[in-house]
Structure formats: structure tokens, C-alpha cells
Amino acid sequence: MTLSFILNGEDVSARVRSVDRLSDLLREHFGLLGLQSDCRGGRCGRCLIMLGGRLVPSCILPAFRIRGMEVVTIEGFSQTDEYQDIVAGFKSAGVETCGFCDSAKILATATLLERRTRPTNAEILEQLSVAPCRCTDPETLVHGVQAAAERRARRLYHRAR
Amino acid sequence: MLVSEIHYPQDILELLELMKTLPEALIYAGGTEILREQGGRGIVLPPEVICIHELSELRKASLSERYLDVGAAVTLAEVLELAGSALPSLFGDTVRGIGTPALRNLATLGGNLAARDRFMDTWPALSCLDALVEIKDSWGSTWINVNRLSDEAGRPAFPSGGVITRIRIPLERVDVSAVRKVGGRDYPGPETAVFALAARADKGILASFRLAFAGRTALRLQEIESHITGRSLPLSERERRSFGEEYRAAAADLPENLASQFAVLVDGALDLLAR
Q1: Does any CB of chain B come closer than 8 Å to the CB of residue A2?
Q2: Looking at the 3D structure of chain A, how many domains does it have?
Q3: Residues of A in contact with B36 (CB under 8 A)
Q4: What is the chain B residue with the closest CA to A41?
Q5: Are residues A143 and A89 in the same domain?
Q6: Same domain for A85 and A153?
């Protein structure tokens, strides 16, 4: 079947079969190598994408399930101001994520800040549990997300004025 | 590798028509339960798949003073967001305990109830809250108590030819509630289960007491519950011990590790009422 959807802001289409995982389609057909398809069970967080603005594991999503929907990967998200807020916020708080989890933690932070402009520590830790990597201690991560939230709020305030 | 035919019905009528002509078809919404254990490169699905996540009738939710009505294809994350603090804490805690936030953005409430070979996380809590499910088939729609998704032997008993369209969760006051997953870290493995308890007291009397335990089989012992309900609080030591023994006897057929953990949780629940 031919599947049409929006990928990183562009209308795209691809021929897919029912056996195709979305993570494989994105990597192999569209060359988006910022996501991995390691555990194939939705556990490791390396395949996370935004689907309709929500964070989901693309390795347990069949490609046919995203017909007409909007997909944003780390490659698309890295072109946004929100991405810059998060990267700068993480850096200022001393968050040094590893190659294993950085895109997952950035996308998880982005979708959290979209819903909650000032998330609590518990909400931050719950949200970042989608990327179960121990490269950074939880306290530093919380500070990183709070710093990103500050930068985002400041930018939105200046834009509104 | 088998390539399946994917069908996208536009409304419930078309879905029911497809289910009639393709009785073996897999109904697919969030799909987390179906794919979570498939570690291979390709996805293995039956020859016919009916994709229902786009059906607007299954994506609605409404909140009134007495009920939360949730469409079967509403995701678990959306349930938490829609109901907020109105959600009974027993059910909210149950949903928050399922997977990660990302998984809850895919998994649907209907899918969690529709697993055919075991009971998933939400059944015990919904059973304790006396939730109803709407089943639609080609004959029409029926509301049934969620307990009727279990047969007399406690095995999952999903009405054939039907599809869950809505779940109605009563928003009654609950004074004491608890939910626990037991059986190790490989949930939902064969020897894992979920325990749920909901109790309400009025003027020193236990006005309602509901306790459910479900994994591969479900336990909801309404006869014992009716013996406990109406007792004065706190329960006496004799009552506590006698109800504990009744529950232990009823759980004798469970695998040994589940039976022992069930006994500990029942004792804990009865201890709360004896204080």
C-alpha cells in the first residue's frame, strides 16, 4: 500500500507493507538515522519520535498506523527554536547526555514543555523515564529541563511582545 | 513473511460490517500489547487487520458528575489528561503504573481490556470501581459490567463478534484504595498479576469493599465481599482472620508464588480495616 503522511513538515509518501515497523521505514526509506530500532519492544527509547505532537516509540508502531499523521524526528526537531532552548538549557545545567540517549531526552523534554511550561521535578523524572539511560544523574537532568523551560519561556515572552 | 491486508473503516457501521465478513480479522488500535513481544525485524499479524484508531466515535470522552465515559480508542495518556483530579485515585494510579509516558501515548483503554489470553492492568481497578463497557456488534449495543469480561473459571471471556466501544467509569467516593503489581519484573509474564482494592466507610460502617486480583485468571469474590460489607469498623481480630482464610482458600488454585503474594496483600487490606 502507498502511505502518505507529513514527515518533518513535508508531505511524503512511501510504499509500505503490514510487516514494516515505522522505525525501519524512517531509517531505511527516508535515511533518518538519528533514531535506532534496537529493542523492538518500546523499552530503550532510542526510536522515539513525535507523532501528532506526542512522544511515541516508533519501533512498536507499524508503518500503516500513521496514515495521514504528522511525524517529527530528531532531525526535523533540530531545526526548531525549541531544540536550541533545550540544548542550551542542558548545557548550562551541565547535562552531558551520551549518544545513546540524547535524542530521546531532547524529544521527551520538548513534548513535556509543550504541555507543562513549569513541570515539577516528579513530572520531569517521569517523562525522562522514556530514556532509561544512566549517563546523567537525575538531579542534573531536572536542572537541565528547568533551564530549558526558562529559556523557552523567555523566548516565547519576547516573541509575544 | 505474511503480508496482511489493512482495512480502515470510516465509522462503526463499516467496522461492524467488516467484522462480520472477516471474523478472524485483528482489531488494531494502539497495538502495544500485540507488538511489545515481537522482537523480530518484521511484524507478524493475521492476514486481515482492521485499523480503528481513526474512528472518531471511539476517540470521544466525556466527564459528568457521576461518570467518566471514555471511547475505546482513547489512549491511556489522554485518559489521565482528560479526567485529571476527577479520576478515582485507584484508576489513576493504575494507569500511571502502565509502561512509560511514551507507551501510554499509544496504548488505548479498550486495548488494555480486550487482551484475549490474560487480564491486563486496568481490569482489577475497573472491576473494583464497577465500571461498565459498551459492546457493539451487528445486533446493536449492550452495556455490561466489566466483570463479565471474565467467565466462571476466571478466564478472559470476550463477547465474540463484538467490539468494545466505550468504557464508563463511575466517579464514586472511595476512602481506601490500593493497586499493586505482583510476580516479578517481567510483567505481564505468565506468573504476574495486579491486585486492586477499593473500600468506602460511612459512619463507622464498611459501606463497600471490593477486591480484585487478575493475571492469567481473575478473582473477584463477591460472596466474601458481601460478608465483609456492612461490618462495623474496625474489624475484629476474629473477623480479620476469618475473611483472610476465606480469601486464601479461594486463591488455592493460583500458582504458588501468586497465591502467597495475594495472601500478603489481602492480609494488608484487612489489617487496614482492623485498625
Answers
A1: no
A2: 2
A3: 41-42, 60
A4: B36
A5: yes
A6: yes
Q: Mean pLDDT throughout B245-271?
A: 93
For B86, which DSSP code?
G
Query: Residue A88: which domain range?
Result: 81-157
Sort out which chain A residues have CB atoms less than 8 A from B102's CB and list them. 42, 45, 48, 55-57, 108, 130
Distances (CA, A) of B267 to A106, A148, B214, B223, B241: 45, 47, 17, 18, 8
Q: How far apart are CA B77 and CA B112, in angstroms?
A: 13
Q: Which of B1, B26, B33, B43 to mutate to test the interface with A (most CBs of A within 10 A)?
A: B43
Its pTM surpasses 0.90: yes
Shortest CA distance to B152 belongs to which of B242, B222, B208, B210?
Answer: B222
Contact B31 A62 (CB under 8 A): yes
Nearest to A55 among B5, B37, B102 (CB): B102
Show which of A34, A52, A77 is a domain's final residue: A77
pLDDT 10s digits, B32-86: 988 877 888 889 999 999 999 999 999 999 999 999 999 999 999 999 998 878 8
User: In this complex, is the C-beta atom of B35 within 8 Å of any C-beta atom belonging to chain A?
Assistant: yes
Complex ipTM tops 0.90? yes
- Estimate the crossing angle of helix A102-115 against helix A121-128, to 10 degrees: 140
Are A103 and A46 found together in one domain? no
